[in-house]
Amino acid sequence: MSRVDIQHVTKRYGTFAALDNVSITFNDGEFFGLLGPSGSGKTTLLRSIAGFIIPDEGTISFDGEQVESVPVHRRAIGMVFQSYALFPHLTIAENIGFGLDVRGVAREDIKKRAAEMLAMVRLSGLEGRYPRQLSGGQQQRVALARALITRPKVLLLDEPLGALDRRLRQEMQVELKDIQRETGITAIFVTHDQEEALTLSDRIAIIDQGRLIQVDAPQTVYERPATVFAANFLGDANVFRGTPVAEGLKLADGTVIATLKPSTGAAIVRPEKLRVAGGHKKAQGNSIEGEIIQAIYSGASVTYRIRTKVLGDTPLLAFIQNQTGEVLATGALVTASWDPEQTIPVDA
Amino acid sequence: MERTAKLYLGAVLVFLYLPIVVMIAMAFNRSALYEMPFTFDLVWFKALAQNDRLLQASWNSIWIACVNAAIATTLGTLAAYAFARYDFRAKRLLQILLFPPITIPWLIIGTSMLIFFFWTGIGRGLHAILLGHVALSLPYVIVVVSARFANFGPQLEEAAASLGATPWQTFWRITVPVLLPGIIAAGLFAFAVSFDQFVISYFLAPPGTSTLPVEIYTSIRKGFTPEINAISSIIILFSMGLMLIVARNYKFGGDN
Q1: Taking CB atoms and an 8 Å limit, are B158 and A79 in contact across chains?
Q2: pTM
């Protein structure tokens, strides 16, 4: 249970900067998601905290104590690997007890603690099995129990649920969150799955090209993204670009859309904030006329792709709650409208 | 079609095992000239017990093969570990250099070793034979153990480190046990390469010292005696027994 402090960390491979002057503080007991595309540097950051990668510049501290020069095995971390990395030649009990065994803890105590951990991950009775005899979800739990038995300062998870199928993943998300709450451990996990990041995290960092794009609570990152990249990476977004004017943003065709705050040249609106009505008529708030090029009915909601003059090839995306049971047909002329407060200025 | 296949299989087994079976049978036949009818007798085993030269050569062979297996397996496993886990200059070149010794005829390697050992003052003798065998079996060991490393990424070792294991603990408690099937296979390979080795041993053996293959060759030139059948039978039964134990405990190419 610790605070992890990253200050000005840079890691280069040749001329490529995998991490570019990253500073971030992970608070005590926080469940923190590092979200970014592959190659963004999120895994490099996680492995730097673990000690597998030594940064070229900057400091990493656990509770104020610098650890850059501390080798992995003395950092008091716990790590869960995407492939689980269970030891194939050891039983489940031996796998879970490994961290205590190498510290010279007495056999009886190891047995007791391993049984406790197994109970926590609801796998009691499987002590004598070997990893290959377990399902993916069970192996995942063993990996978690093994990482937590030494009471590490920080738990690091590398795409922890990536290898599981969708149903199991959702189940494990709940369980992982519960265990993290119970133990109160600081946990940092890497994912490229936005839903996973939103569900699990107390805070999210969006990472791209070795830089932090935004660090905030999931709701803030979603509702108030800082950049076009953040908006697109976490959820879907309609992006408008133009010139800043007093009222908001002036688009290429002269349309002015009002924004929440003064913009610097780009603004986004989430597809579910749009209203779509048949015909071309001025609606309240911001509105744009267009033509439906695709309507996807999925029961509870309808997704429209609308061609507009101002967005050109990029369709305007609208998610509409199915309240009336009616679906607008492809080819219909429509007006999409939304509130200025939902028009969030972002950095390009 | 199936008939042809069975016939083919039968022919292969006959050509492979019949000479061995005949040899073992003749070790127990009283006649020195392979005369029939077969009369069971242990006379050649008794004669073998008196043949100090053959026994000494056998002992030399076994001793060299065991020490060679131990040394080559240790060095080779460490080399395979370095190839698998570290990046260094000329790594690729060194890996490529592993293969020529396997394909260069032993006669040529033997000649060059003889010249080199003579020139450097290492000379001839059991120590020279052992040195030659280690050099010869090292590439086999590295290739066999590296194959095991190929489906064993660094994650297990990283996991051990993250759990607090020192590099030493990680090596002995994770790396070695996971590699063990490969290490055992490599050790048997090294044993066989040495135990079978004739050419290099022949070149490096000074007068009065020899290994079993060299001694068998020398005796055959002087005139064949069935004592050789006797010692060969013992060795065949021993090595087949060993291989059967290994084959029972390890699936080919699989995990454990």
Answers
A1: yes
A2: 0.81
